[in-house]
Amino acid sequence: MLVGSGNLEALFARGASVELVLVGSGNVEPSVARGASAARVLVGSGNVEPLVARGASVELVPVGSANVEPSVARGASVQIVLVGSGNVEPSVARGASVEVVLVSSSGNVEPLVARGASVELVLVSSGNVEASVARGASIELVLVGSSNVEP
Fold first, then answer.
1. Which domain of life does the UniProt lineage start with (predicted)?
2. So where are the chain's domains?
3. Beta-bridge partners for 142
4. Do residues 71 and 61 make contact, with C-beta atoms less than 8 angstroms apart?
5. According to the model, what pLDDT value does residue 114 have?
6. How many CB atoms within 10 Å of residue 92?
């Protein structure tokens, strides 16, 4: 299902099995929020909050700059979260299971892993990772470009 900006609520919101959902900027809330199985959800800048916040199983959620807080913060199972500059703090800070978190250059990843979230890989180019690993978070690998990793 490829959608530019339209509302695809009625398309597969009532029990259809969808493998791939590509959305430009439309609101896909009712699309998978009512029992549809979506394997991958690619969202440009739309609000994906209700998309996986109500029990939908999503494997991959790449987000450009949107706030993905409610997307995985309410029990949704997300494998990979790619974030450019958005605030991902509540995304994995409240018990969501996230395997990989890639943060490019300007996001604050402090609360991301500092509050008990299980994160396998954290890639940070120039962000401050001080609080990320300084408070007992379980992190396998931290790659830092030029930031201060002193603490």
1. Eukaryota
2. 1-58, 61-151
3. 122
4. yes
5. 40
6. 26
119 close to 92: Cβ distance less than 8 angstroms = yes
CA nearest neighbour of 74 among 109, 33, 19, 45: 33
pLDDT tens for the chain, residues 1 to 151? 444 434 444 444 444 444 444 443 344 444 444 444 454 454 443 444 444 444 444 544 544 334 444 444 334 444 445 444 344 444 443 444 444 454 443 444 444 444 444 444 454 444 444 444 444 444 444 444 444 443 3
- Evaluate if pTM is beyond 0.70: no
Instruction: Give the 3-state secondary structure percentages of the chain, helix then strand then coil, rounded to 5.
Output: 20, 25, 55
> Left, alpha or beta for 136 (phi > 0: left; psi -120 to 50: alpha)?
left
How many CA atoms are closer than 13 Å to the CA of 85, on its beta-carbon side? 4
Region of 60 please: left (phi>0), alpha (psi -120 to 50) or beta. Answer: beta
Q: Residue 117: count other Cβ atoms within 10 Å of its Cβ.
A: 21
